[in-house]
Write a structure and sequence with these properties.
The protein is of the alpha/beta class and 316 residues long. Helices cover 31% and strands 28% of the residues. Helix 3 runs parallel beside helix 4, helix 4 (103-116) packs antiparallel against helix 8 (296-312) and helix 6 (162-178) crosses helix 8 (296-312).
Length: 316
């Protein structure tokens, strides 16, 4: 007898720029059934619902009892309240980054998910970037990491400072690679177009001895997302945007009396759809009731470090 699995009933709360993409992915996947989309802008909700052949709802609470899991892509200030309500109704949640507006809200959300035995995944999309995933087996013990994430100004995302808007992507990635507590930090930031810092630099020193230097700007002339990693015998450049990594290795057996040779390799890594991979991973975690690749605890850790950076920012 063939065994068939029913599609998971899904919904999306907040169908602005990012939420619309979530709705499109759920609508296209065979193991998901998009029950409805919600937005405070009824015209936007109706347009996305029509595009994805689903229902437009005015209140997210109308999804209670109708869905197994949801994506939440509302403004950051509402992440806690909306995600909490779904978790308390035993609905699994994928919430966009940052997890919440504050660390205290994030801690409560992680506790609620644990108490209710629900899946809480955070939308740190870079973890699903094929360029980053290709580091498995190459990166072993990073000693120095340098990140640049800069982009031209857009109003989307300016409900938070540049640390929680852009830098938090790199914080999450670095924390997942280094896996050591932050021992000390210093940071500097400048507001340019908003009241919050629009350019920031942070230098983190980890208990392991690794140092990370991270720059984020949302007032740059062009977009760049790069990470450079140094370890004892290898230098790696990850270009997220171009889906490419460059690897320089030192020859482990140099000839006596001469400097070691350096080998150079460049890899194009597949241009997979990172958002689709993220949503597929979420659906797998929901179906298997397994630990998500980017858990609520991961999102909380990145948010808490971001908060510490904001707290010690020197702003002229």
């Amino acid at each position: 007898m063939s065994h068939t699995t029913e599609p998971l009933r899904t919904g999306v709360v907040g169908v602005g720029y990012l939420g619309r993409f979530h709705a499109q992915k759920y609508a296209a996947l065979s193991d998901a059934a998009l029950v409805g989309v919600v937005d405070v802008d009824s015209a936007r909700a109706a347009a996305v619902a029509a595009e994805c052949q689903t229902r437009a709802l005015a209140d997210y609470r109308d999804l209670f009892g109708q869905v197994d899991c949801v994506s939440i892509a509302v403004p950051t200030q509402w992440h806690y309240a909306v995600a909490r309500d779904f978790l308390l109704h035993d609905i699994d949640v994928l919430v966009e980054k940052p997890l919440t507006a504050t660390g205290s809200e994030g801690r409560e959300l992680v506790e609620i998910a644990a108490q209710r035995n629900r899946i809480l995944q955070v939308g740190h999309l870079e973890r699903f970037n094929p360029a980053l995933r290709s580091l498995t087996g190459i990166l072993t013990a990073p000693r120095f990491i340098e990140c640049h994430r800069v982009a031209p100004f857009v109003e989307r995302g300016t409900d938070v400072d540049v640390v929680r808007d852009l830098m938090i992507h790199d914080l999450d990635v670095i924390l997942s690679l280094v896996r050591s507590p932050v021992a000390s930090m210093e940071a500097f930031g400048v507001p340019v177009l908003t009241k919050e810092p629009d350019i920031a630099n942070a230098r983190l020193r980890f208990a392991s001895g690794c140092v990370a230097n991270i720059t984020a700007s949302r007032v740059a002339l062009k977009r760049e997302r790069k990470m450079r990693l140094f370890q004892l015998d290898t230098y790696i450049v990850v270009d997220y945007g171009e889906h490419r990594i460059r690897i320089c290795r030192r020859d482990p057996t140099p000839q006596e009396g001469s400097l070691p040779n350096i080998t150079y390799e460049e890899r194009e890594v597949g241009g997979e759809d990172a958002l689709e991979e993220e949503i597929r991973a979420f659906l797998r975690a929901v179906r298997d009731h397994s630990q998500p690749i980017v858990s609520g605890q991961d999102g909380l850790q990145a948010l808490e470090v971001a908060e510490q950076i904001v707290g010690c920012l020197e702003v002229p």
